[in-house]
Automatic annotation (TrEMBL):
The lineage of its organism: Eukaryota, Fungi, Dikarya, Basidiomycota, Agaricomycotina. One of its GO terms (molecular function) is unfolded protein binding. Keywords: Membrane, Transmembrane, Transmembrane helix. The chain crosses the membrane at residues 67-85, 97-116, 128-153, 165-184, 204-229, 241-261, 273-294. GO terms for biological process: protein folding. The keyword Transmembrane applies. Signal peptide: none annotated. This is Chitin synthase III catalytic subunit. InterPro entries: Chs7 (IPR022057). It comes from the Eukaryota. GO terms for cellular component: endoplasmic reticulum membrane. The keyword Transmembrane helix applies.
Length: 309
């Protein structure tokens, strides 16, 4: 019976689910007989735990890894760099520093996703575990920065000031450090606090499940509710409302593509690609639309040229 916090259904049915890298290492050292099928051979094992369909590691047979998502991540990186540049250029815009931080963290998650889901590294290696743990920390931090941007938009505190930036970066550091530590502890069982429970094949970790599966969706929901309220009730503008609604739709479609289409695409292409590239494209599109929404409700420069950059 599946319990709350079990990763087994996700690691078995969703190709390229990155957090499975953590459980692979844990099983490899404490219950290696549970690694069967494609996961039994560490040299060619795909991302996942005994996956029904998985993309073999680069160099195994004719495998070139998760090539579609590698390309999608590779193309997303310069796009996000451009967004950071354009955001930094808008010197008088409200929340410029906070939004730039959001884009920077998203850039890190895309770069790490390319490695942790690209089937480059051998399963069970310490390098893959550390990179996956950092990836998990970056994803959790990303959604804090998203909420932080919504709070800045309410103007409860003045953006770009110590009263805004100190708690913003402090909480980002807490989310990053806590999630990375929990992820490493799950994989390496440094302590018994976050060690996956029994039975081992359930891949059970409530803390990791809440942080990587529940928190992102909850944070995104809070963000979009706050921003739509600000735009509709405070600013009373239509175009930004359309942008934020579109970004929310793209975010939901990315999750649906990842969780519902990945296995179908993987089966249909004989484990050559999966739906992760569609999710990456949609996520990056959502980030672009968020920039357009923010641009539509902010100013480029101060009116007084004496204070212009």
């Amino acid at each position: 019976m599946t319990r709350f916090g079990d990763f087994k259904p996700l690691c078995r049915n969703i190709p390229s689910y990155p957090w499975c890298n953590l459980f692979y290492r844990e099983l490899q050292h404490h219950a290696p007989t549970l690694l069967i099928g494609p996961s039994a051979n560490t040299t060619s094992a795909p991302v996942g735990i005994n996956p029904k369909c998985g993309i073999s590691r680069v160099g195994s047979g004719n495998s070139i890894g998760n090539i579609a998502n590698i390309i999608a991540c590779g193309l997303s990186i310069p796009v996000v760099l451009w967004l950071i540049y354009r955001t930094n250029h808008r010197k008088a815009a409200v929340g410029r520093i906070e939004l730039r931080a959001f884009f920077a963290v998203y850039l890190v998650t895309v770069a790490l996703q390319l490695v942790t889901t690209g089937s480059f590294l051998k399963q069970g290696t310490t390098t893959l575990v550390i990179l996956t743990a950092i990836h998990a920390g970056a994803v959790v931090t990303l959604f804090w920065t998203l909420i932080g941007n919504a709070l800045v938009a309410t103007q409860i505190v003045e953006d770009g000031t110590p009263s805004s930036l100190i708690p913003f970066y402090f909480l980002a550091a807490i989310f990053m450090a806590a999630t990375t530590y929990i992820s490493i502890d799950v994989a390496l069982t440094i302590t018994s606090t976050f060690e996956p429970g029994n039975p081992k094949d359930s891949l059970h970790s409530i803390a990791l499940f809440v942080l990587t599966s529940i928190w992102p969706g909850a944070a995104a929901l809070v963000y979009f509710i706050l921003m739509i309220w600000i735009v509709a009730r405070v600013l009373r503008e239509l175009r930004p409302l359309v942008y934020y609604t579109l970004a929310g739709i793209l975010f939901v479609l990315a999750r649906l593509a990842y969780f519902l289409l990945s296995r179908t695409i993987c089966d249909g292409t004989n484990a050559k690609i999966d739906g992760s590239f569609i999710a990456t494209v949609l996520d990056t599109a959502a980030v672009i639309v968020l920039y357009l929404a923010w641009r539509s409700i902010t100013e480029d420069y101060w009116d007084d040229d004496a204070f212009a950059y």
